[in-house]
Amino acid sequence: MSKVKQFSVQTGSTVQFIRIDHKVNEIIKESGVQNGICVIFVPHTTAGVTINENADPDVVRDMIMEMNKIVPFNDGYHHGEGNSAAHIKSSLVGPSISVVIEEGRILFGTWQSIYFCEFDGPRSRRVVVKVIEG
Ligand code: ZN
Prior knowledge:
By secondary structure, the chain is α+β, with helices and mostly antiparallel strands. It has one domain: YjbQ-like (Jelly Rolls). 26% of the residues lie in helices and 37% in strands. A 5-stranded antiparallel beta sheet has the order 1-8-3-5-6, covered by helices on one side. It has a 3-stranded antiparallel beta sheet with strand order 2-7-4. Strand 5 (96-102) and strand 6 form a beta hairpin. The mean pLDDT is 97. Zinc ion binds at residues 79, 81, 83, 87.
């Protein structure tokens, strides 16, 4: 079993999805694990992680557009920090995903990528990765 690894992500706007496949793949490669599970965890309450299409950037654009409609930035929220929309989106997307590793690679579908989801940027964020052999 390999050690827990971390890397940082610098986000550039309030709501933004950033591909992190290459960083996760690097960690899997360094771990030497050929078959197992990789857990990708975001230790933040106003960010998340998800898997979705990487071919057409309009997919992510549409996802952000609709999320902003479903969870408006201002809606009479009570939380004094003023970022309730970000907290809600964070819980809707979720703080972690796990992927299956086979022969040293993530078993992605053809169009899948891992996205770090910023909901209260721009900020410097962390991503925690744990590779488990098995
Ligand atoms: Zn808050």
